[in-house]
Amino acid sequence: WKSSPISGFSLGEITIQPNGADMVVTYELRLETAGGPPRALRVVSVWQQLQRGWVLIAQSETPVS
Q: Which residues pair with 50 in a beta bridge?
């Protein structure tokens, strides 16, 4: 990330689904960098609610072709 600073981004296709005490969030992330072509990633993250708020407990990214 340090060698290619992000010049822009967008989020799309966002879904939030409960899974027991957790929430599963999926979305498509598009990144634009100053020195390269745009990249698209499918992101899945799992959030867990604690007493003081939400905590990210797992995340995965898959390139979109």
A: 53
**Distance from first CA to last CA of the chain, Å, rounded?**
20
| Count of C-beta atoms within a 10 Å radius of residue 21 | 8
- What is the reported pTM? 0.79
DSSP 30: E
Alpha-carbon separation of residue 53 from 4, 30, 37, 48, 49 (angstroms): 32, 27, 36, 8, 6
Let me know how long the chain is.
65
The DSSP secondary-structure symbol of 1 reads -
Are the CB atoms for 44 and 25 separated by under 8 Å? yes
pLDDT, tens digit (0-9, with 9 covering 90-100), for 6-52:
889 999 999 999 998 899 999 999 998 887 788 899 999 999 999 89
Residue type present at position 19: N
- Would you state the structure tokens that stand for residue 53, as one six-digit string? 């708020």
